[in-house]
Design goal:
The protein is of the alpha/beta class. Helices cover 37% and strands 12% of the residues. Strands 1-5-7-8-9-10-11 form a seven-stranded parallel sheet. About 5% of the residues have low confidence.
Length: 757
């Protein structure tokens, strides 16, 4: 085993390519326009370019096995042989993508958020019957690829405890079974993996255990002790780095400290180094450079932390707080940003340079004395608390927004509103609608790019948008939907579009970040006070409504989601920033009403995402997040029907808060998770639309399949409060898929409507 850890490292690196090369290669392969060889060639080039660049920047510890065609949790399931039988095909890549995207007649595995990020992972299915077997081809191949370039790497794998805690029991598993019950079997596969990597000459392996920064039960902590006690005692293995991130390890830190692992990575941006003295004798990979935001690191502050950790623990390496998967590649490409703002920013490349610089400064700094231990429960001097205002944490003093305190006066009670809306909207039972967006065609994307390049004028572009809105309205009327949408042709993204029209934001040209699979977003940069100079969506909603006698929804993104899916200033409490955005949304709601729009959807898919990982902080967050949403929407008239939408985020865990949003109708993901949330909605007292069409899969469900989902939903939700809709927006699908799927949705609703007339 290797005894010394490199002085500088990162826990992971972006993998989509600086120009989204992986996205294009994947989608071309899925559409059968290119071969598997073409896809693999692109993937190999992206990996090699990343390793070469990291080495050129001076980074000593290079990670491998961080590349993925879709998701690292799905990769781990394949590594362990945890592939449900229904997905197995003759081709291994076809099996992999069937799990992620579905196959003919087979829905994909469930997808949800990776802790409190906007990255989505594929949820493994583990049951008593699951047969685990090692398939180490991928990590071994990447080690060999890098070695062919003259570079040694550290394979990264999701750790056994986190993998099982994130998994769900296979359908039909006995009551009381939990995937963690299979820990011993899974650890044996990890032991074989470590043996194969040792035989390959690998010196270090990184096992990611971010689940340990959430509240864990004594049984779960015992699982940590058992897993790493077993792996640490293996005679023939590489040295082990157990990486935690997104917060403090808390009670898990002394448990890990007592195991024979050689190194532990700590997030010292969102967490602190409380208890770090317990790690004396191990290497502490000190995550002082944030992997979650785009602000330059305070070098003096970070160095002070590194020196204090070295004093307490002895051996210290400099690292990132988490993988750099969550930030764009290179800020130097953003030549259109204000130079003063750009000077404050650091993307992945700049963060790697910061890690290397801090490692050099730490090495040059003299040791004052030998490490010593502090009394239990005391913070070592110089160890700073998180700079960023994490949801639920006490806020430091900051400059308040000019509007001061906002208090929602509240709308009329829901039964009063429901009666007024029924009289005004005259909708049938089981009304059919969609979540908002319709397919973004290649023609639309090219027109948007041509407008940005000055190749076409604003008038020509807006003419195309009006034509697209006409097409979308006509399609929905022909199919027989009840509440229509304008399709959002003018929007490149549900957050970026608003950021482009609000003061206080900047947007990038190349700042792409992976959300899942081939899906990428460009998070805006929220750097100043937020204000709305003028209406944003009103003219498009008004135009769409002029084309039909059916109600058209005004489509807005909620304040929590706009902030959650942006890179946010760190000089104000997050609550205050969200309330600034809520002011802007409230103004937009009022203007939509004045324009005659009587159904307004204010989406909050990130409400669950931002819930703090520690229970002690959750109530405070949910209180102000719900208050912000209600402030944004409470000015609406009782005849105006307010919708909200949440997707792919374990919304069943915060149903009380969703109910407290006081929206008239809430749509939720349900098709992909096969209705798992419906068992928890007994106390939900408003309109509910459990999704019946998984838009993240290319599968087109038939009317019988949709009818089955609706029949299940009717067991939990009365027909007079049940809505019929897809799981999410239709932006990523083709018109051919959308038309076929929506036709089936309308047909199934009509069948059940006739039954319940």
């Amino acid at each position: 085993m290797t005894s010394s850890f490199p002085a500088s490292t990162v826990l992971g690196y972006p993998r989509i390519g600086p120009d989204r090369e992986l996205k294009r290669a994947l989608e071309s392969y899925w559409e059968q326009r290119t071969s598997r060889g073409d896809l693999e060639s692109t993937a190999r080039r992206l990996r090699e370019d990343s390793w070469r660049r990291l080495a050129a920047l001076g980074l000593e510890g290079l990670p491998s096995n961080t590349f993925s065609y879709y998701d690292q949790v799905l990769d781990t399931a394949v590594l362990l042989g945890a592939v449900p039988e229904r997905y197995r095909q003759d081709d291994d890549l076809a099996t992999y993508f069937a799990m992620a995207r579905g196959a003919e007649g087979i829905p994909p595995l469930r997808m949800t958020k990776w802790f409190d990020t906007n990255y989505h992972y594929i949820v493994p299915e583990i049951g008593p019957e699951t047969v685990f077997s090692l398939d180490a081809a991928k990590p071994l191949a990447e080690v060999r690829e890098a070695r062919a370039l003259g570079l040694e790497t550290r394979p990264v794998v999701v750790g056994p405890v986190t993998f099982l805690l994130l998994a769900q029991a296979t359908p039909g598993s006995p009551g009381g079974f939990a995937p963690l019950d299979r820990l011993d079997d899974v650890v044996e596969v990890y032991a074989r993996l470590l043996a194969e990597l040792a035989a390959e000459g690998v010196g270090w392996v990184q096992l990611d255990e971010p689940a340990l920064v959430a509240d864990r039960t004594p049984a779960e902590l015992a699982a940590v002790e058992a897993a790493y006690g077993r792996l640490g005692r293996l005679e023939n293995r590489p040295a082990l780095l157990v990486a935690s991130y997104f917060g403090d390890l808390g009670d898990a830190l002394p448990v890990l400290a007592a195991t024979p692992v050689e190194a532990v990575a700590l997030d010292l941006v969102r967490g602190t180094a409380h208890g770090v003295d317990a790690l004396a004798g191990k290497t502490v990979v000190a995550g002082v450079v944030s992997g979650r935001d785009v602000w330059r690191t305070d070098r003096d502050r970070a160095l002070a932390t590194l020196l204090a950790v070295r004093e307490r623990a002895g051996r210290v390496a400099v690292g990132t707080s988490c993988s750099l998967l969550h930030v764009p590649y290179d800020v130097e490409r953003e030549t259109g940003l204000d130079p003063a703002l750009r000077e404050r920013l650091a993307f992945a490349e700049q963060k790697v340079a910061e890690v290397v610089e801090l490692a050099d400064l730490l090495a040059a700094a003299p040791r004052r004395h030998a490490p010593r231990r502090h009394a239990p429960g005391r913070h070592a001097p110089g160890l700073y608390a998180p700079r960023r205002h994490v949801p639920g944490q006490p806020a430091a003093q900051g400059r308040p927004h000019a509007s001061g305190r906002r208090t929602a006066q509240g709308r009329a009670p829901y039964p009063v509103r429901a009666a007024a809306q029924a009289e005004h909207l005259k909708l049938p039972i089981l009304p059919v609608t969609t979540i908002g967006s319709f397919p973004q065609t290649g023609e639309l994307r090219r027109a948007r790019a041509a407008l940005a390049a000055g190749e076409i004028g604003e008038a020509a572009y807006e003419g195309m948008l009006r034509t697209e809105i006409e097409r979308v309205i006509a399609l929905q009327e022909r199919l027989g939907l009840d509440v229509l949408v304008h399709g959002e042709a003018e929007r490149n993204d549900m957050v970026q579009y608003f950021a482009e029209h609000l003061d206080g934001f900047a947007v990038t040209r190349h700042g792409w970040v992976q959300s899942y699979g081939s899906r990428c977003t460009r998070p805006p940069i929220l750097h100043g006070d937020v204000r709305r100079p003028e209406p944003i969506t009103v003219r498009w909603a008004r135009y769409a409504q002029s084309l039909t006698s059916k109600p058209v929804k005004g489509m807005l993104t909620g304040p929590v989601t706009i902030v959650a899916w942006s890179f946010v200033r760190d000089d104000l409490p997050l609550r205050e920033v969200v309330l600034q955005v809520a002011d802007a949304v409230r103004e937009e709601v009022g203007d939509l009403e004045e324009a005659g729009i009587r159904v307004i959807q204010v989406d909050e898919p990130a409400l669950r995402e931002l819930v703090p990982l520690r229970r002690a902080e959750q109530d405070a967050y949910l209180e102000w997040a719900v208050a912000a949403y209600r402030w944004a929407t409470s000015g609406a008239d009782e005849c105006t029907q307010i919708h909200t939408h949440l997707c792919y985020s374990d919304a069943d865990q915060i149903l009380a808060a969703i109910d407290a949003l006081d929206a008239d109708v809430t749509s939720i993901e349900s098709a992909r998770s096969r209705g798992r949330l419906l068992g928890a909605v007994g106390d939900f007292s408003r309109g509910l639309g459990p999704g019946v069409y998984d838009i993240h899969s290319p599968r087109v469900p038939g009317a019988d399949e949709v009818e089955g989902l609706l029949t299940e939903a009717l067991r939990a939700v009365p027909a007079e409060r049940l809505w019929v809709n897809p799981d999410c927006g239709l932006k990523t699908r083709s018109y051919e898929q959308v038309e076929a799927a929506l036709a089936g949705v309308v047909e199934s609703a009509a069948r059940l409507r006739a039954r319940h007339a």
